[in-house]
Specification:
Layout: H1 11-29, H2 36-57, H3 60-73, H4 79-104, H5 137-154, H6 156-159, H7 191-200, H8 225-239
């Protein structure tokens, strides 16, 4: 096949710019962001197509090899070519420096603290029901009011006045106190589990839950069973989220 010649921008440069624009499109325009493996696959196909295009329609030596040789060897003394050589001379060590800097300037991260999300409670805590969750509305309202008072005397400092886990001490804990306003907390947990976690706190968790960084104290040493059950009633009443039951 007879090779063709075109005036204007050199074909090699035109193809290189097209590949660069195609990469920027895949990297920054396409949403959701593509994983690196997919970008690499598309770029490999694009490069293969570009090589086929150049070899079919152009003389590779004339459109690619000779311009590079002329540019680097100083065969062209024009201002653009000369400035480009200086720019390349400065850019190459900067690229190497930046790559080395990125490689060795890693942000120090604390070691991973693996833990289970919801450890299983002991047998004696399974299948429990809140004895204060009764049908009599007046009695239930009184229990909720008692739970509110208990919460704001003991739990507000960590779990916050809005029950969102943003109390005045919350920022000092990792993990942060539970956010009861999150629909993925109370509706996903059983009443007996909540009662157990409140009762035993972080230090009362079973061995299989180690390591567990919960800073919650052992409330069974400070609150009665009735007070802990009433707090659970208040959590549900305030947030509108009902914990799961054994039914």
């Amino acid at each position: 096949m007879e090779k063709i010649k075109k005036k204007g921008m050199p074909p090699g440069l035109r193809v290189a710019l097209s590949l660069a624009l195609f990469y920027l499109f895949l990297r920054f325009i396409v949403q959701p962001p593509l994983p690196f493996s997919v970008i690499f696959m598309y770029m490999a196909m694009a490069v293969a197509g570009a090589i086929m295009y150049l070899t079919l329609f152009f003389d590779i030596k004339e459109v690619i090899v000779n311009p590079i040789y002329t540019f680097l060897g100083g065969g062209v003394e024009g201002g653009v070519a000369k400035g480009g050589r200086y720019a390349l001379l400065v850019a190459m060590p900067l690229v190497v420096w930046f790559g080395s800097y990125q490689k060795f300037n890693k942000e120090i991260q604390p070691p991973l603290d693996p833990r289970v999300i919801h450890p299983a409670p002991p047998v004696e805590f399974t299948g429990l029901y809140n004895p204060f969750n009764v049908e009599d509305k007046e009695t239930l309202r009184k229990s909720v009011a008692d739970g509110k008072e208990i919460y704001y005397k003991n739990c507000i400092f960590c779990h916050g006045d809005l029950l969102d886990g943003d109390g005045i001490f919350a920022h000092g804990f990792n993990p942060r106190p539970a956010n009861f306003q999150d629909p993925g907390v109370l509706p996903m947990l059983q009443e007996s589990f909540l009662f157990w976690r409140i009762s035993t706190g972080g230090i009362g968790l079973p061995q299989e839950s180690t390591p567990w960084s919960s800073a919650m104290p052992k409330w069974e040493d400070m609150l009665t069973d009735e007070e802990r059950w009433k707090v659970i009633l208040f959590l549900s009443d305030y947030t509108g989220f009902v914990p799961r039951s054994w039914e």
